[in-house]
Write a structure and sequence with these properties.
The protein has helices spanning about 10-20, 25-40, 55-60, 90-110, 125-135; strands spanning about 70-75, 80-90, 110-120, 140, 150, 155-160, 165, 175-180. The mean pLDDT is about 95. Helix 1 (about 10-20) crosses helix 2 and helix 4 (about 90-110) runs parallel beside helix 5 (about 125-135). With about 180 residues, it is an alpha+beta fold. The strands form 3 sheets. A 3-stranded mixed β-sheet has the order 1-2-3, with helices on one face. A 3-stranded antiparallel β-sheet has the order 4-7-8, covered by helices on one side. Helices cover about 40% and strands about 25% of the residues. The chain folds into 2 domains: about 10-60, Malate/L-lactate/L-sulpholactate dehydrogenase, four-helix barrel (Hypothetical Oxidoreductase Yiak, Chain: A, domain 1), CATH 1.10.1530; about 70-180, Ribosomal Protein S8, Chain: A, domain 1 (2-Layer Sandwich). The radius of gyration is 17 Å and the shape is globular.
Length: about 180
């Protein structure tokens, strides 16, 4: 087992971003993905961190994940919208969706944005926390493919369907609950 090598967070983000840029993401999209993966590592969520780099790169190269870094708005009705992620990396679509939900909440008192055709979005708490940073309660969730059998069953029928809720506080940090 190789020993750990100390590295500045900014340098690690830059290295990971370079890998994603080399696989076809825009420099801005590559940086945002790298920041999300490194942040997960910093939070002790390695299951949502850098271990996904090889899988994401493989999917980008094979074309099952697109290099887009912006989802398209396909439905917008006041406080509610639907984005089409065009099979892009879910981190980018989820960040865009929460940014839009926050703007809608400022205008309408509530904002709900769904993303279709997205891909794995990492730790859901990241996006709920986006809302808390804006002084709002945030909820981020996703469906997943069936991973577990129902009680007494033998075949996978239920996903772990992650959900996160973040609540701002008068003093930082916000309360963030992230479960899958």
């Amino acid at each position: 087992m190789p020993s750990a090598v100390p590295m500045r967070v900014a340098d690690l983000v830059a290295e990971v971003a370079a890998v994603f840029a080399g696989a076809g993401l825009s420099p801005a999209g590559a940086s945002r993905i790298a920041e999300a993966l490194v942040e997960a590592e910093q939070q002790g969520l390695s299951s949502h961190g850098l271990m996904h780099v090889p899988l994401y790169i493989e999917r980008l190269r094979k074309g099952s994940v697109s290099p887009h870094d912006e989802a398209l708005c396909v439905s917008d009705h006041g406080a509610v919208a639907v984005l089409d992620g065009r099979h892009m990396l879910g981190h980018l679509a989820a960040e865009q969706a929460m940014t839009l939900a926050i703007a809608k909440a400022r205008s309408f008192g509530i904002g709900a944005v769904a993303v279709r055709h997205g891909f794995h979005f990492g730790a859901a708490g990241r996006y709920a926390a986006q809302a808390a940073e804006a002084g709002m309660i945030g909820i981020a969730m996703s469906n997943t493919r069936p991973l577990m059998p129902a009680p007494g069953g033998a075949e996978p029928a239920v996903g772990n369907n992650p959900i996160a809720i973040a609540i701002p506080t008068a003093d930082e940090p916000a309360v963030v609950v992230d479960v899958a």
